[in-house]
């Protein structure tokens, strides 16, 4: 009771203190209430391909339980990591599948808190690209293309193309987007460059008008300086001293051409097949000690990045450039006609030309070319003669003599000649084959077959075997063909050929290999003599052995005494 009374009689001052402490506790409790916040706070703008992290943080609860979801309950398409009072949703990389409002939910005991973050995406990753359909050439149309790659949303895109300060084209891409995707948009303009465009620049500007989204850059720009070209033209050649020259002389040819940039000069010579043989990359071409083969069409070309322009000049080297050329229609063979051609190349004027052909001291042909009086270019003239060589012609010299009868011109030489020594060939002949011991052999025997052939030069020997199909199987290039330990399949026709440059001569021999113990179908005279001789020799040898033994018994040997005692 006492204690109760004391409580009931608590002083007013203590009651006030107690009440104040309760109020302070309540204020402290309220200040530590369960809260949730997000970073970023409400919205994030991200470029497609970047890494984006959304963080949810709580206070007033240790530890809370977190969960994430989209407003349409679509997949998160990201990774969630919870650490204490923090939860992070990471999207790597961020893309169209992440363009949602994400809701973070935190639960602490029976209390639940939620907060959302809006993810908005765009793509404007690169500066525009400027492409030209070709080099910029004065007077020729060219198409300029300005590309903006991988842009989203493209319905907010604006593009401008300028040449210097002049706007060439503007374009807004206001068409509706049927689906979310990265698009490469372009702007094309065709114009014709002029001389005034030299030094100017092309400028491609791209702007992404999304004012409600804060991102940088919202404008991108690319500049390309114009390189304007002028194709080569007005190519000119000057020749000093002249386009008609004497053999051994020199000439200097100079070429120039107009263009932008200044054309590079190339000198070439046109070949017989129409192709060009490059000679020089200088504007001046000098040829010294010229010969008639230097005659022809020379081409100068002015070349730069956009084109080329050419000019031709023909040089003619007059005179008597080189010795005649002797050609034969084939190998000189004893008894076979052969044609000798004496050619004088690139001669001018050919109507003053005379050609003589000699064999030893004898003239076998002569020709003057008076019919060519109207020809004003280099000619190759020839004299052809046919004769029948013999072995007596070997060592004789063929002489081709060419004379240019131009007394009014001073040049040397006015007479040229070429020589060729005759070597007359004789085709292989009288080919013979010697077989030892015989062409008919017993199996296991050996045989030598020797071949010889006459000709000039000395024929090469080739041994072959004739196959069943008629073809020849080469065996040896030696004059003697040896077969050892012969077999019956070695039987057949063997062919010897004598070969040189003039022809081939052949001889055949048939080899017959018989089996052991068989009676021969063929008897040679040699075998008959050997058989008869052996029938007499064997008894004689027996008698000699008999008398020799008796003589040995007596201590001496006398064929006469031996015969007497027998009588």
List keywords for this structure.
567 residues, mainly beta, Immunoglobulin-like, 7 domains, five-stranded mixed sheet, 11% helix, elongated, disordered N terminus, disordered C terminus, glycoprotein
Could you walk me through the main structural features you see in this protein, from its secondary elements to its overall organization?
Helix content is 11%, strand content 50%. It is mainly beta and 567 residues long. It has seven domains: 2-31, no CATH class; 35-122, Immunoglobulins (Immunoglobulin-like, Sandwich); 129-226, Immunoglobulin-like (Sandwich); 230-318, Sandwich (Immunoglobulin-like); 325-421, Sandwich (Immunoglobulin-like); 426-514, Immunoglobulin-like (Sandwich); 527-567, no CATH class. The strands form ten sheets. Strands 18-24-23-20-21 form a five-stranded mixed beta sheet, with no helix packed on it. The protein has a five-stranded mixed beta sheet with strand order 33-39-38-35-36, with no helix packed on it. The protein starts with a helix and ends with a helix. The model is unreliable at 1-31, 519-532 and 550-567 (pLDDT under 50).
């Amino acid at each position: 009771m006492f204690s109760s009374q004391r409580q009931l009689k608590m002083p007013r001052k203590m009651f006030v203190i107690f009440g104040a402490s309760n109020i302070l506790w309540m204020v402290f409790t309220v200040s530590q209430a369960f809260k949730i916040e997000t970073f970023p706070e409400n919205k994030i703008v991200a470029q497609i391909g970047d890494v984006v992290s959304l963080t949810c943080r709580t206070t007033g609860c240790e530890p809370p339980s977190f969960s994430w979801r989209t407003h349409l309950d679509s997949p998160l398409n990201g990774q969630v990591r919870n650490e204490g009072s923090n939860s992070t949703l990471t999207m790597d990389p961020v893309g169209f599948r992440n363009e949602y409002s994400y809701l973070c939910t935190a639960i602490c005991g029976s209390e639940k808190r939620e907060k959302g973050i809006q993810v908005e995406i765009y793509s404007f990753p690169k500066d525009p690209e400027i492409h030209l359909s070709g080099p910029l050439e004065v007077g020729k149309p060219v198409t300029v293309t300005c590309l903006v790659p991988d842009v989203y949303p493209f319905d907010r895109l604006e593009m401008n193309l300028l040449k210097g300060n002049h706007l060439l084209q503007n374009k807004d891409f206001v068409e509706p987007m049927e689906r979310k995707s990265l698009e490469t948009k372009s702007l094309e303009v065709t114009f014709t460059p002029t001389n005034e465009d030299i030094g100017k620049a092309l400028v491609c500007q791209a702007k992404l008008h999304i004012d409600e989204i804060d991102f940088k850059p919202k404008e991108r720009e690319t500049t390309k300086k114009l390189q304007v070209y002028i194709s080569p033209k007005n190519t000119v050649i000057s020749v000093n001293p002249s386009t008609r020259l004497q053999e051994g002389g020199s000439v200097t040819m100079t070429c120039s051409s107009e263009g932008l940039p200044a054309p590079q000069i190339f000198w070439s010579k046109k070949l017989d097949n129409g192709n060009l043989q490059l000679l020089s990359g200088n504007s001046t071409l000098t040829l010294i000690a010229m010969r008639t083969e230097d005659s022809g069409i020379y081409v100068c070309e002015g070349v730069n990045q956009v084109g080329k322009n050419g000019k031709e000049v023909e040089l003619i080297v007059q005179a008597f450039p080189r010795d005649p050329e002797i050609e034969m229609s084939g190998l000189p063979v004893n008894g076979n006609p052969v044609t000798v051609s004496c050619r004088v190349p690139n001669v001018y004027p050919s109507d003053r030309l005379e050609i003589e052909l000699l064999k030893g001291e004898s003239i076998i042909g002569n020709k003057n070319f008076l019919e060519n009086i109207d020809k004003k270019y280099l000619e190759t003239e020839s004299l052809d003669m046919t004769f029948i060589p013999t072995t007596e012609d070997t060592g004789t010299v063929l002489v081709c003599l060419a004379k240019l009868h131009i007394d009014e011109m001073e040049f040397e030489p006015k007479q040229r000649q070429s020589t060729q020594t005759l070597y007359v060939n004789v085709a292989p002949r009288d080919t013979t084959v010697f077989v030892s011991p015989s062409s008919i052999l017993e199996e296991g025997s050996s045989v030598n077959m020797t071949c010889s052939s006459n000709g000039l030069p000395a024929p090469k020997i080739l041994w072959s075997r004739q196959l069943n199909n008629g073809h020849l199987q080469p065996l040896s290039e030696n004059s003697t063909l040896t077969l050892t330990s012969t077999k019956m399949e070695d039987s057949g026709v063997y062919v010897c050929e004598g070969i040189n440059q003039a022809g081939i001569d052949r001889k055949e021999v048939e080899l017959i290999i018989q089996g052991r113990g068989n009676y021969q179908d063929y008897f040679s005279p040699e075998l008959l003599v050997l058989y008869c001789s052996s029938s007499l020799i064997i008894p004689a040898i027996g008698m000699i052995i008999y008398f020799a033994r008796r003589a040995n018994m007596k201590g001496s040997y006398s064929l006469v005494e031996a015969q007497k005692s027998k009588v």
